[in-house]
Amino acid sequence: MSRFLSIMVYEEILYWLRENNEEKLKELWEKADLVRRQFVGDEVYLRGLIEISNYCSKNCSYCGIRVSNKSLKRYRMSKDEIIDTALLAKELGYGTVVLQSGEDPGFLPEEIAYIIGDIKSKAGLAVTLSLGEQSRENLKLWKRAGADRYLLKFETSDERLFKKLHRGPSAKKLAGRISQILYMKELGYEVGSGIIIGLPYQTYESIAKDIVLFKEMDLDMIGIGPYVPHPLTPLGKIYSSHKESVSKSVPNTPEMTIKVVALTRLACPESNIPATTALATIGGVEARKLCLLRGANIIMPNITPLKYRVYYDIYPGKTCSIKNIQDTHEDIIQLIESIGRIPGVGRGDRVRQN
Ligand code: SAM
Ligand code: SF4
Predict the structure, then answer these.
(1) pLDDT, average across residues 48-58
(2) Mean pLDDT, to the nearest integer, of 245-271?
(3) Could you tell me if the CB of 72 is within 6 A of ligand 2?
(4) Quick check: 156 and 202 in contact, CB under 8 A?
Protein backbone atom coordinates (compact mmCIF):
# COMPACT_ATOMS: atom_id res chain seq x y z
CA MET A 1 0.00 0.00 0.00
CA SER A 2 1.23 3.50 -0.79
CA ARG A 3 1.24 5.21 2.58
CA PHE A 4 1.08 8.63 0.95
CA LEU A 5 -1.88 9.11 -1.36
CA SER A 6 -2.06 12.65 -2.68
CA ILE A 7 -5.10 13.14 -0.51
CA MET A 8 -4.60 11.41 2.81
CA VAL A 9 -7.48 9.25 3.88
CA TYR A 10 -8.66 8.33 7.34
CA GLU A 11 -7.00 4.88 7.41
CA GLU A 12 -3.62 6.22 6.38
CA ILE A 13 -3.76 8.91 9.02
CA LEU A 14 -4.68 6.36 11.67
CA TYR A 15 -1.83 4.11 10.55
CA TRP A 16 0.71 6.90 11.07
CA LEU A 17 -0.79 8.08 14.36
CA ARG A 18 -0.15 4.60 15.76
CA GLU A 19 3.32 4.17 14.23
CA ASN A 20 6.16 4.42 16.74
CA ASN A 21 9.08 3.07 14.74
CA GLU A 22 11.54 5.97 14.35
CA GLU A 23 13.02 4.51 11.14
CA LYS A 24 9.58 4.31 9.50
CA LEU A 25 8.60 7.73 10.81
CA LYS A 26 11.54 9.31 8.94
CA GLU A 27 9.50 8.77 5.77
CA LEU A 28 6.65 10.85 7.24
CA TRP A 29 8.95 13.66 8.45
CA GLU A 30 10.67 13.92 5.05
CA LYS A 31 7.42 13.97 3.12
CA ALA A 32 5.87 16.61 5.41
CA ASP A 33 8.94 18.84 5.05
CA LEU A 34 8.94 18.45 1.26
CA VAL A 35 5.25 19.30 0.96
CA ARG A 36 5.74 22.29 3.29
CA ARG A 37 8.54 23.62 1.06
CA GLN A 38 6.56 23.05 -2.16
CA PHE A 39 3.35 24.69 -0.95
CA VAL A 40 4.25 27.39 1.59
CA GLY A 41 7.98 27.87 0.99
CA ASP A 42 10.88 28.50 3.37
CA GLU A 43 9.47 31.63 5.00
CA VAL A 44 8.34 31.42 8.61
CA TYR A 45 5.75 34.16 9.17
CA LEU A 46 5.50 35.82 12.57
CA ARG A 47 2.15 36.85 14.03
CA GLY A 48 2.33 39.10 17.09
CA LEU A 49 -0.06 37.74 19.71
CA ILE A 50 -1.74 40.31 22.00
CA GLU A 51 -3.76 38.80 24.84
CA ILE A 52 -6.17 41.70 25.19
CA SER A 53 -8.29 40.43 28.12
CA ASN A 54 -8.39 37.44 30.44
CA TYR A 55 -12.06 37.87 31.38
CA CYS A 56 -14.11 34.92 30.16
CA SER A 57 -17.75 33.96 30.61
CA LYS A 58 -17.06 30.32 29.63
CA ASN A 59 -15.95 27.44 31.77
CA CYS A 60 -13.92 25.10 29.54
CA SER A 61 -12.66 22.37 31.85
CA TYR A 62 -9.03 22.59 30.67
CA CYS A 63 -8.50 26.36 30.69
CA GLY A 64 -7.00 28.34 33.58
CA ILE A 65 -8.86 31.57 32.74
CA ARG A 66 -12.30 29.87 32.91
CA VAL A 67 -14.94 31.89 34.74
CA SER A 68 -14.86 29.61 37.81
CA ASN A 69 -11.21 30.36 38.54
CA LYS A 70 -11.92 33.03 41.13
CA SER A 71 -8.31 33.24 42.33
CA LEU A 72 -7.10 34.81 39.08
CA LYS A 73 -6.60 38.56 38.84
CA ARG A 74 -8.48 39.77 35.75
CA TYR A 75 -7.37 42.49 33.31
CA ARG A 76 -8.62 44.15 30.15
CA MET A 77 -6.17 46.19 28.05
CA SER A 78 -7.24 49.71 27.08
CA LYS A 79 -7.73 50.68 23.45
CA ASP A 80 -4.56 52.78 23.51
CA GLU A 81 -2.51 49.97 25.03
CA ILE A 82 -3.68 47.56 22.33
CA ILE A 83 -2.96 50.00 19.52
CA ASP A 84 0.48 50.88 20.93
CA THR A 85 1.31 47.16 21.16
CA ALA A 86 0.23 46.69 17.53
CA LEU A 87 2.55 49.54 16.54
CA LEU A 88 5.37 47.76 18.34
CA ALA A 89 4.59 44.63 16.27
CA LYS A 90 4.97 46.75 13.15
CA GLU A 91 8.35 48.06 14.40
CA LEU A 92 9.53 44.49 14.92
CA GLY A 93 8.65 43.76 11.28
CA TYR A 94 5.56 41.60 11.81
CA GLY A 95 2.84 41.61 9.15
CA THR A 96 0.01 40.45 11.45
CA VAL A 97 -1.32 40.98 14.94
CA VAL A 98 -3.61 38.49 16.62
CA LEU A 99 -6.06 39.91 19.18
CA GLN A 100 -6.96 37.11 21.57
CA SER A 101 -9.08 36.97 24.73
CA GLY A 102 -11.59 35.03 26.73
CA GLU A 103 -15.23 35.62 25.79
CA ASP A 104 -15.32 38.97 27.50
CA PRO A 105 -18.72 40.69 27.65
CA GLY A 106 -16.95 43.78 29.05
CA PHE A 107 -15.51 44.61 25.63
CA LEU A 108 -18.23 46.27 23.56
CA PRO A 109 -18.32 45.06 19.94
CA GLU A 110 -18.03 48.70 18.81
CA GLU A 111 -14.82 49.11 20.85
CA ILE A 112 -13.30 46.08 19.14
CA ALA A 113 -14.36 47.52 15.76
CA TYR A 114 -12.70 50.83 16.65
CA ILE A 115 -9.47 49.06 17.66
CA ILE A 116 -9.41 47.03 14.42
CA GLY A 117 -9.95 50.21 12.35
CA ASP A 118 -7.22 52.08 14.20
CA ILE A 119 -4.68 49.25 13.82
CA LYS A 120 -5.46 49.08 10.09
CA SER A 121 -5.09 52.82 9.56
CA LYS A 122 -2.08 53.44 11.83
CA ALA A 123 -0.07 50.22 11.38
CA GLY A 124 -1.47 48.69 8.17
CA LEU A 125 -1.16 45.19 9.62
CA ALA A 126 -3.32 42.16 8.93
CA VAL A 127 -5.64 41.71 11.94
CA THR A 128 -6.55 38.26 13.18
CA LEU A 129 -9.21 37.88 15.86
CA SER A 130 -9.44 35.04 18.37
CA LEU A 131 -12.30 36.15 20.60
CA GLY A 132 -14.29 32.92 20.87
CA GLU A 133 -17.92 32.35 19.91
CA GLN A 134 -19.58 35.53 18.69
CA SER A 135 -22.88 36.63 17.16
CA ARG A 136 -23.24 37.02 13.40
CA GLU A 137 -23.77 40.77 13.93
CA ASN A 138 -20.40 41.12 15.71
CA LEU A 139 -18.59 39.07 13.08
CA LYS A 140 -20.07 41.26 10.32
CA LEU A 141 -19.24 44.46 12.21
CA TRP A 142 -15.60 43.45 12.70
CA LYS A 143 -15.21 42.31 9.08
CA ARG A 144 -16.51 45.70 7.93
CA ALA A 145 -14.06 47.38 10.33
CA GLY A 146 -11.19 45.64 8.51
CA ALA A 147 -10.53 42.35 10.33
CA ASP A 148 -8.81 39.87 8.02
CA ARG A 149 -8.79 36.54 9.82
CA TYR A 150 -10.44 34.67 12.69
CA LEU A 151 -9.18 31.73 14.75
CA LEU A 152 -11.69 29.44 16.45
CA LYS A 153 -10.51 25.96 17.36
CA PHE A 154 -13.14 23.23 17.42
CA GLU A 155 -10.77 21.59 19.99
CA THR A 156 -11.96 18.03 19.15
CA SER A 157 -14.50 16.77 16.63
CA ASP A 158 -15.46 13.93 18.99
CA GLU A 159 -18.91 15.01 20.18
CA ARG A 160 -18.78 12.90 23.36
CA LEU A 161 -15.37 14.17 24.40
CA PHE A 162 -16.34 17.74 23.53
CA LYS A 163 -19.40 17.48 25.81
CA LYS A 164 -17.28 16.13 28.67
CA LEU A 165 -15.00 19.16 28.43
CA HIS A 166 -17.68 21.82 28.04
CA ARG A 167 -20.49 21.70 30.56
CA GLY A 168 -22.98 24.16 32.01
CA PRO A 169 -25.43 26.65 30.50
CA SER A 170 -22.81 28.83 28.76
CA ALA A 171 -20.72 25.90 27.47
CA LYS A 172 -18.97 25.93 24.11
CA LYS A 173 -21.03 23.97 21.53
CA LEU A 174 -19.24 21.92 18.87
CA ALA A 175 -21.94 22.51 16.22
CA GLY A 176 -21.96 26.22 17.09
CA ARG A 177 -18.23 26.51 16.55
CA ILE A 178 -18.31 24.64 13.25
CA SER A 179 -21.19 26.75 11.93
CA GLN A 180 -19.41 29.97 13.04
CA ILE A 181 -16.32 28.88 11.08
CA LEU A 182 -18.41 28.24 7.96
CA TYR A 183 -20.22 31.57 8.36
CA MET A 184 -16.93 33.47 8.73
CA LYS A 185 -15.77 31.95 5.44
CA GLU A 186 -18.93 33.32 3.79
CA LEU A 187 -18.10 36.76 5.21
CA GLY A 188 -14.65 36.62 3.62
CA TYR A 189 -12.47 36.03 6.68
CA GLU A 190 -9.45 33.77 6.34
CA VAL A 191 -10.42 31.16 8.91
CA GLY A 192 -8.43 29.03 11.27
CA SER A 193 -9.36 26.22 13.56
CA GLY A 194 -7.52 23.52 15.46
CA ILE A 195 -7.40 20.94 18.19
CA ILE A 196 -5.76 20.06 21.48
CA ILE A 197 -3.62 16.90 21.52
CA GLY A 198 -3.58 14.50 24.46
CA LEU A 199 -6.78 15.43 26.24
CA PRO A 200 -7.75 12.75 28.77
CA TYR A 201 -10.05 10.18 27.00
CA GLN A 202 -8.99 11.33 23.50
CA THR A 203 -8.56 8.48 21.00
CA TYR A 204 -6.39 8.07 17.89
CA GLU A 205 -9.58 7.56 15.87
CA SER A 206 -10.89 10.94 16.96
CA ILE A 207 -7.65 12.70 15.95
CA ALA A 208 -7.75 11.00 12.53
CA LYS A 209 -11.30 12.35 12.14
CA ASP A 210 -10.15 15.83 13.22
CA ILE A 211 -7.55 15.85 10.43
CA VAL A 212 -10.13 14.69 7.86
CA LEU A 213 -12.39 17.53 9.06
CA PHE A 214 -9.55 20.10 8.65
CA LYS A 215 -9.35 19.00 5.03
CA GLU A 216 -13.11 19.05 4.46
CA MET A 217 -13.39 22.55 5.92
CA ASP A 218 -10.57 23.80 3.67
CA LEU A 219 -9.05 25.78 6.56
CA ASP A 220 -6.59 28.60 5.92
CA MET A 221 -4.90 28.19 9.33
CA ILE A 222 -4.67 25.16 11.63
CA GLY A 223 -3.44 25.36 15.25
CA ILE A 224 -2.36 22.10 16.91
CA GLY A 225 -1.12 22.28 20.49
CA PRO A 226 -0.62 19.72 23.26
CA TYR A 227 -2.86 19.68 26.30
CA VAL A 228 -0.98 21.37 29.16
CA PRO A 229 -2.66 20.45 32.47
CA HIS A 230 -3.60 23.37 34.71
CA PRO A 231 -3.85 22.30 38.38
CA LEU A 232 -6.71 24.73 39.15
CA THR A 233 -9.05 23.23 36.53
CA PRO A 234 -11.34 20.18 36.65
CA LEU A 235 -9.47 18.51 33.77
CA GLY A 236 -6.11 19.22 35.39
CA LYS A 237 -7.36 17.39 38.50
CA ILE A 238 -8.55 14.40 36.45
CA TYR A 239 -5.18 14.35 34.68
CA SER A 240 -3.25 14.05 37.93
CA SER A 241 -5.61 11.69 39.78
CA HIS A 242 -6.76 9.21 37.07
CA LYS A 243 -3.34 8.13 35.81
CA GLU A 244 -4.65 4.80 34.46
CA SER A 245 -7.40 6.15 32.19
CA VAL A 246 -5.12 9.02 31.11
CA SER A 247 -2.40 6.54 30.11
CA LYS A 248 -4.86 4.88 27.68
CA SER A 249 -5.56 8.20 25.94
CA VAL A 250 -3.46 9.79 23.19
CA PRO A 251 -0.32 11.16 24.92
CA ASN A 252 0.04 14.94 25.30
CA THR A 253 3.70 14.77 24.23
CA PRO A 254 5.75 16.94 21.87
CA GLU A 255 6.28 13.86 19.64
CA MET A 256 2.55 13.20 19.21
CA THR A 257 1.79 16.90 18.63
CA ILE A 258 4.48 17.14 15.94
CA LYS A 259 3.22 13.97 14.29
CA VAL A 260 -0.27 15.49 14.03
CA VAL A 261 1.29 18.64 12.52
CA ALA A 262 3.13 16.52 9.91
CA LEU A 263 -0.04 14.60 8.98
CA THR A 264 -2.02 17.85 8.81
CA ARG A 265 0.58 19.36 6.43
CA LEU A 266 0.08 16.36 4.10
CA ALA A 267 -3.71 16.57 4.32
CA CYS A 268 -3.84 20.38 3.96
CA PRO A 269 -0.70 21.41 2.05
CA GLU A 270 -1.59 25.11 1.62
CA SER A 271 -2.64 25.87 5.19
CA ASN A 272 -0.66 28.09 7.52
CA ILE A 273 0.30 25.89 10.49
CA PRO A 274 2.04 27.32 13.59
CA ALA A 275 4.63 25.70 15.81
CA THR A 276 2.56 26.64 18.87
CA THR A 277 3.51 28.21 22.19
CA ALA A 278 1.90 25.24 23.99
CA LEU A 279 4.30 22.93 22.15
CA ALA A 280 7.28 25.11 23.11
CA THR A 281 6.02 25.12 26.70
CA ILE A 282 6.24 21.34 27.04
CA GLY A 283 9.06 20.64 24.57
CA GLY A 284 11.22 23.77 24.56
CA VAL A 285 13.11 25.23 21.61
CA GLU A 286 14.00 21.80 20.21
CA ALA A 287 10.34 20.81 19.85
CA ARG A 288 9.58 24.09 18.10
CA LYS A 289 12.46 23.51 15.68
CA LEU A 290 11.36 19.96 14.95
CA CYS A 291 7.82 21.16 14.36
CA LEU A 292 9.09 23.68 11.76
CA LEU A 293 11.15 20.89 10.16
CA ARG A 294 8.11 18.58 10.01
CA GLY A 295 5.41 20.76 8.49
CA ALA A 296 4.92 24.04 10.40
CA ASN A 297 5.51 27.51 8.87
CA ILE A 298 4.24 30.04 11.43
CA ILE A 299 5.28 31.29 14.89
CA MET A 300 3.12 33.53 17.06
CA PRO A 301 5.45 35.47 19.39
CA ASN A 302 3.70 36.77 22.47
CA ILE A 303 3.88 40.57 22.50
CA THR A 304 1.38 41.18 25.32
CA PRO A 305 2.81 43.79 27.76
CA LEU A 306 4.71 41.93 30.51
CA LYS A 307 2.54 43.40 33.30
CA TYR A 308 -0.49 41.50 31.90
CA ARG A 309 1.14 38.40 30.52
CA VAL A 310 1.34 36.44 33.79
CA TYR A 311 -2.43 36.79 34.23
CA TYR A 312 -3.26 35.18 30.86
CA ASP A 313 -2.81 31.92 32.70
CA ILE A 314 -4.50 29.42 30.36
CA TYR A 315 -1.90 26.82 31.36
CA PRO A 316 1.21 26.94 33.57
CA GLY A 317 4.74 27.61 32.36
CA LYS A 318 3.95 29.51 29.16
CA THR A 319 7.45 29.84 27.70
CA CYS A 320 7.09 33.51 27.01
CA SER A 321 5.93 34.60 30.48
CA ILE A 322 9.22 36.01 31.74
CA LYS A 323 10.92 37.36 28.63
CA ASN A 324 10.48 40.84 27.26
CA ILE A 325 9.25 41.33 23.72
CA GLN A 326 12.59 42.27 22.16
CA ASP A 327 14.39 39.23 23.67
CA THR A 328 11.60 36.86 22.60
CA HIS A 329 11.78 38.32 19.11
CA GLU A 330 15.55 37.85 18.85
CA ASP A 331 15.35 34.24 20.11
CA ILE A 332 12.75 33.44 17.49
CA ILE A 333 14.69 34.98 14.60
CA GLN A 334 17.76 33.01 15.71
CA LEU A 335 15.74 29.80 15.86
CA ILE A 336 14.36 30.31 12.34
CA GLU A 337 17.78 31.06 10.87
CA SER A 338 19.44 28.16 12.72
CA ILE A 339 17.40 25.70 10.63
CA GLY A 340 18.05 27.49 7.34
CA ARG A 341 14.66 29.13 7.09
CA ILE A 342 13.77 32.79 6.42
CA PRO A 343 11.70 35.16 8.60
CA GLY A 344 8.68 36.02 6.41
CA VAL A 345 8.08 39.60 5.33
CA GLY A 346 4.52 40.91 4.90
CA ARG A 347 1.14 39.49 5.78
CA GLY A 348 1.71 35.82 5.00
CA ASP A 349 -1.79 35.15 3.73
CA ARG A 350 -2.76 31.71 2.49
CA VAL A 351 -1.60 31.25 -1.09
CA ARG A 352 -3.86 29.04 -3.21
CA GLN A 353 -2.12 26.94 -5.82
CA ASN A 354 -5.07 27.03 -8.25
N1 SAM B 1 -11.55 32.20 24.20
C2 SAM B 1 -11.18 31.94 22.85
C3 SAM B 1 -11.48 30.52 22.47
O4 SAM B 1 -11.63 29.67 23.34
O5 SAM B 1 -11.52 30.27 21.26
C6 SAM B 1 -9.73 32.26 22.56
C7 SAM B 1 -8.77 32.14 23.70
S8 SAM B 1 -8.48 30.47 24.26
C9 SAM B 1 -7.44 30.72 25.64
C10 SAM B 1 -7.38 29.89 22.99
C11 SAM B 1 -7.11 28.41 23.00
O12 SAM B 1 -6.39 28.05 24.19
C13 SAM B 1 -8.29 27.48 23.01
O14 SAM B 1 -8.83 27.30 21.73
C15 SAM B 1 -7.68 26.19 23.59
O16 SAM B 1 -7.38 25.28 22.55
C17 SAM B 1 -6.37 26.65 24.21
N18 SAM B 1 -6.21 26.17 25.60
C19 SAM B 1 -6.87 26.57 26.69
N20 SAM B 1 -6.45 25.87 27.78
C21 SAM B 1 -5.49 25.00 27.34
C22 SAM B 1 -4.69 24.01 27.98
N23 SAM B 1 -4.78 23.76 29.29
N24 SAM B 1 -3.81 23.31 27.22
C25 SAM B 1 -3.70 23.56 25.90
N26 SAM B 1 -4.45 24.48 25.23
C27 SAM B 1 -5.34 25.20 25.95
FE1 SF4 C 1 -12.68 31.00 27.85
FE2 SF4 C 1 -11.42 30.29 25.58
FE3 SF4 C 1 -10.49 29.53 28.02
FE4 SF4 C 1 -12.74 28.46 27.09
S5 SF4 C 1 -10.69 28.24 26.17
S6 SF4 C 1 -12.42 29.24 29.16
S7 SF4 C 1 -13.64 30.18 25.98
S8 SF4 C 1 -10.61 31.58 27.20
Answers:
(1) 97
(2) 94
(3) no
(4) yes
